[in-house]
Amino acid sequence: MTKALSWFFSLLALSVVILLIVIFAWQSGPVWRAEGAGYLTGTKWFFRQHEFGALPMIYGSLAVAVVALVLAVPVGFGAAIFTAEYLPRRPRLAVKMLIELLAGVPSVVYGLLGILLLRDWIYALFARFDPLSGDSLLTAGALLAVMILPTLVTLSDDALRAVPAAQRRAARSLGLTRAETVLTVALPQAARGFGAALLLAFGRALGETIAVFLVVGRRDNFLPANWLSPRALLETGQTITSKLGSSETNIAWGDPRHWAAITGLALILLAITVGVTMLGTALAKKEAR
Amino acid sequence: MKRRALDVFVAAVAALCASVAVGILVGLVAVIAQRGAPAISWTFLTEQIRLVGAAGGIFWNVIGTLLLLATALGVCLPLAVALALVERVWLRKTRARRLVRTALYTLNGVPTIVFGIFGFIVFVQWCGWGKSWLAGGFVLALGMLPTVAVALIERLHAIPARYVEAAAALGLRESQIVWSVLLPQARGGLITGSLLALARAAGETAPIMFTATIFAGATLPHGVKDSPVLSLPYHIFILAQDSFDPAVGAKLWGAALVLLGLVFSLSLAALPSRLRAHEEAHV
Fold first, then answer.
1. Which of B268, B73, B121 shows the shortest CA–CA distance to A259?
2. pLDDT exceeds cutoff 80 at B276
3. Is B227 helix (H, G, I), strand (E, B) or coil?
4. CATH number for the domain including A170?
5. Is position A11 within any domain?
6. Which whole number is the average pLDDT over B127-141?
7. Of B279, B99, B271, nearest in space to B191 by CA
8. Secondary structure class of A175 (helix, strand, coil)
9. Can you give the residue range of the structural domain that contains A88?
């Protein structure tokens, strides 16, 4: 009985996950048939004209996530080095618990802070570049940076702690300073774990919806002339998630092509985040062995 | 001399990074507490919303969020326990076990908006429920499943093999071992995992915005079909988008503080058990 029930519920969970993938692949069918690969590379999204190009949103998602990583990674790795290598056990636990606790702050609360504080700060800070408003890819990225910070710190701290203490003692007894021990003994061995932390944080940043939705500006069809130009980050844009979270999702149902375009975005997001997460998990696993 | 300088420099930079991280996060909570506190009062918690959020309270929002959480937990628990047991007890091959864990980690990385749209297709449209608390419960449960299942799996694997061997030597059947040894021993993992998952689910907006929750005009659901609930995250989400009325602003921060309080109490409740597990792992 116990065995049968366990298998039943497990298979139920499995079939839901399979159904999830199947549904998005199937529902997005019409847009792939209509646009082909042009759906991924198309730069125009006008749903009334049945023009669906996802590229501006893919750019937006990548831009905010990369900004978030650039801002958060140095701080996160540095903080992890401090908690893992410098703090004694009890303060370390306290700091870790604090950071994990704050990882639970809901994204809508981050969004609220973004709207009421960060937006104005960014506008004031970059006023001389003449941004249209405080809503921008940069604002969304900065907000995401704070949101992924706990993930980065927690995972990289774990990676450093997985390096055996005996190796640190050996290094210190050879006369290496603490900094040299960290840089030449601990860090190289934790590199995979740091990579995993980076990837998993990247995945989180890509999939974050509500906070980004509130501060990114949600302007369709924005692509900078120069992809790498930092000035473009002060423009409003649209990410995959902010599109999916918008009321267009409600409107789209009933128009098969439009709905396919929306579920296609979800499928792209699913593919990217699942890829990044699996890669990150695989890296973390190797570390543990 | 150069080596000494490097030593001091690295320590200083690392300490600075850690203070920045902790400082940002503490400052953020302080801002919400400071701005939200004036709005909190007994009537704020017990009255229903009036004047599009400018007056009244958030009673039904809190109730709606709690209802969604209870439903999600009810849906999630059987699935999580079953998965963990299958992984620990009935899957013999290491590769199959690893597959289960990989699937759970991957599910954990799926953005919650994807679950939301999935629920919108399946429950709201195909089942014809419209927005419904039950759909919200199902969708939130999907997001909670990996956290609960992984916490339970880890605790199940930490149970010493001799406990199971002793039970088997006493002639207990597999299912008896599950109920009298494995599950009682792993209860802590189940509780911790559930609390953490609930803490995360409580603040989720993306999965429930298309499936379960509306801004105003709902109390307790009467059935499954067309019975949405109010919720705290969606309330904040909607008000945040046009928060120029100062009266709304004050209520908005108040609601954020209440939501934050709910999330923190759930994660703090999980803390003692997690600390104990941590101590045991590092004796």
1. B121
2. no
3. coil
4. 1.10.3720.10
5. no
6. 93
7. B271
8. coil
9. 52-288
Quick one: average pLDDT of A107-113? 93
- What distance in Å separates the CA atoms of residue B6 and residue B1, rounded to the nearest whole number? 9
Q: How many contacts does A have with B, using Cβ atoms within 8 A?
A: 255
Contact A246, A45 (CB under 8 A): no
Name the residue among A191, A219, A204 with its Cα closest to residue A149. Answer: A204
**How sure is the predictor about B281, in pLDDT bands with cuts at 50, 70 and 90?**
low
Contacting residues of A for B121, CB less than 8 Å apart: 23, 27, 263
Please tell me which of the candidates B26, B28, B266 has its beta carbon nearest to residue A113. Answer: B28
Asked whether the beta carbons of residue A178 and residue B103 sit closer than 8 angstroms, the reply is no
The structure tokens listed for A27 are: 């529902």
Q: Tell me if A86 and B11 make a contact (CB, 8 A cut-off).
A: yes
Element (H, E) at B42: helix B42-46
Per-residue pLDDT for A161 more than 50? yes
- Kindly state the tokens that stand for B180: 């009298």
Q: Is the pLDDT of residue B53 over 70?
A: no
SS3 B55: strand
Q: What are phi and psi of A45, to 5 degrees?
A: -125, 100
pLDDT surpasses 90 at B51: no
**Contact residues for A114 (Cβ-Cβ < 8 A; gap 6+):** A139, A140, A143, A211, A214, A215
A81 backbone dihedrals φ, ψ, rounded to 5°: -60, -40
In a domain, A43, yes or no: no
Q: What does DSSP assign to residue B49? A: E
H or E, element range at A244: helix A240-244
Contacts of A9 in chain B (CB under 8 A): 78-79, 81-83
Q: What is the pTM of this model?
A: 0.93
Closest in B29, B90, B114 to A102, CB measured? B29
Residue A21, domain member (yes or no)? no
pLDDT of residue B77 exceeding 80 = yes
How far apart CA A152 and CA A101 sit, in angstroms, is 14
Closest to A111 measured CA to CA, from A232, A241, A12: A241
Q: Domain B41-281 is in which class?
A: mainly alpha
The alpha-carbon gap from B154 to the nearest alpha carbon of chain A, in Å, equals 14
Q: Tell me the per-residue pLDDT of B102-117, one tens digit each, with 9 for 90 and over.
A: 999 999 999 999 999 9
The answer to whether the CB atoms of A214 and B241 lie below 8 A apart is yes
The domain spans of chain B are 1-39, 41-281
Task: Provide the angle, in degrees to the nearest 10, between the axes of the packed helices B2-36 and A55-81.
Answer: 120
Residues 152-211 of B with CB under 8 A from A: 174-175, 178-179, 196, 199-200, 202-206, 209-210
Phi, then psi, of A46 in degrees rounded to 5 = -130, 100
How much is the pLDDT for A288? 46
H or E, element range at A45: strand A45-46
Residue at A12 is within a domain: no
Cβ contacts of B86 on chain A, cutoff 8 Å: 6-7, 10
Confidence (pLDDT) at A127: 85
Record: contact A207-B109, CB cut-off 8 A: yes
Contact B267, A139 (CB under 8 A): no
- State the amino acid at position B64 in one-letter form: G
Tokens of B41: 């009062």
